[in-house]
Write a structure and sequence with these properties.
Blueprint (H helix, E strand, L loop, with lengths): L31 H12 L19 H8 L7 E3 L20 E6 L1 H5 L13 E5 L7 E3 L16 H4 E2 L2 E2 L12 E8 H5 L10 E2 L1 H11 L10 E5 L2 H10 L14 E2 L4 H6 L4 E4 L17 H10 L2 E4 L4 H10 L3 E5 L10 E3 L3 E3 L1
Parallel strand pairs: 7-9, 8-10, 9-11, 11-12
Antiparallel strand pairs: 1-15, 2-3, 4-12, 4-14, 5-6, 7-13, 13-15
Length: 351
């Protein structure tokens, strides 16, 4: 018998993706609950890959898609899309997130003084790091966000994530999956001023489609792709740091990002994952009078979509703009911390 506490969000039979998108002007700013519930029902992938599924949209990224991505390598030029992991990062304590603390356990000084206890003159260095798993460039796993107490695929949140971690959809389940065709949509360059969108700019499906049209065929987005969306906010934050003004609210304040109305677009395109150069992926402030990350609430527990945040897309974007090619091979495996609901990543794009 169905559990009456779990909404019926099984996947409807669809052979052609719905290409009608919600107009931002149609959003009722005073009713985030209604908008989230409606989008969650429309975009649900619950049951699509069976009741036991733990991969969500990574099911779209199969062996054929990985092979397709590998064939995109032509020049061998590679780009790390990771920000730094150090004490000078952008975190300032929001939600108890701090910058990484790196400490040496053994050093060259110890080796010189012969205090390490090794034979025949050998010495070494060793170190340790302490950090929140989402302090810098990272993936959100499927156990990161819940919708009314429900986790991905309709499971009860408390049956998935406990004080021991995520025993069902821990980030380690994605350790061998996230490699394939990457596509960069440089919305900041296409629509912004000097390559940057202002904080609070909501990127709609129309903006995404306009960027694809401007960039050409290599920017097409479809099933199994890993989509990267550049807003230019990181570029602006770096200027502030260089000017001695610090990171400001880059890791927790206002930001450009995806509009709530992109939920249907993200669902219909059947992408495997999406990442941005901002801390929260979606536009901040959000598009309702009182709401916190409503697009997360639809994307992660209902669509089963992996979200990446704090990615460094600037060097890759410059190269793509120079050669007019916006697709590449992308390898972006998360650190497989058992039971984690998110994890650091050093994504590598190869063209």
């Amino acid at each position: 018998m169905p559990d009456p506490t779990v909404p019926d969000r099984t996947v409807p039979d669809r052979t052609v993706p719905d290409r009608t998108w919600t107009d931002p002007a149609e959003l009722d700013r005073g009713d985030p609950e209604g908008a989230i519930a409606a989008a969650a029902k429309r975009c649900s992938n619950w049951g699509r890959w069976g009741a036991d599924d733990v991969l969500g949209t990574l099911n779209f990224l199969d062996d054929a898609k990985r092979a397709e991505g590998a064939r995109l390598v032509r020049r061998g030029a590679s780009f790390s899309l990771s920000q730094r992991f150090d004490a000078d990062g952008p975190q300032k304590g929001w939600r108890r997130r701090t910058n990484p603390v790196h400490t040496m356990l053994d050093t060259g000084t110890d080796a010189e003084r012969g205090v390490q206890g090794f034979p025949h003159g050998i010495g070494g260095a060793d170190d340790v790091i302490a950090m929140p798993l989402q302090a810098s460039t990272q993936w959100d796993g499927l156990g990161h966000i819940f919708d009314h107490g429900n986790a991905w695929n309709g499971r009860r949140a408390g049956d998935v994530v406990t004080s021991l971690g995520d025993a069902v959809t821990g980030i380690e389940t994605a350790a061998d999956r996230i490699a394939g065709r990457g596509v960069l949509l440089d919305v900041g360059r296409a629509l912004g001023t000097d390559g940057e969108l202002p904080d609070g700019f909501a990127i709609t499906p129309a903006h995404l489609e306009a960027t694809i049209a401007a960039q050409g065929d290599t920017a097409r987005v479809g099933r199994g792709d890993l989509l990267l969306v550049r807003t230019g906010q990181l570029t602006r934050a770096r200027r502030s740091v260089a000017a001695g003004q610090g990171w400001g609210d880059y890791a927790g304040g206002p930001a450009p990002g995806l509009s709530f109305t992109t939920a249907d677009w993200l669902h219909a395109t059947e992408i495997a994952g999406v990442a941005t150069d901002t801390w929260g992926f979606e536009v901040r402030p959000n598009e309702f009078d009182v709401a916190f990350q409503p697009l997360h609430q639809v994307c992660i527990p209902n669509i089963g979509l992996f979200l990446g945040e704090l990615w460094d897309l600037d060097a890759l974007a410059a190269d793509c703009a120079a050669d007019g090619v916006w697709e590449f091979f992308l390898a972006a495996a998360p650190l497989p911390v058992t039971g984690a609901v998110g994890a650091p990543v050093n994504p590598i794009a190869v063209k």
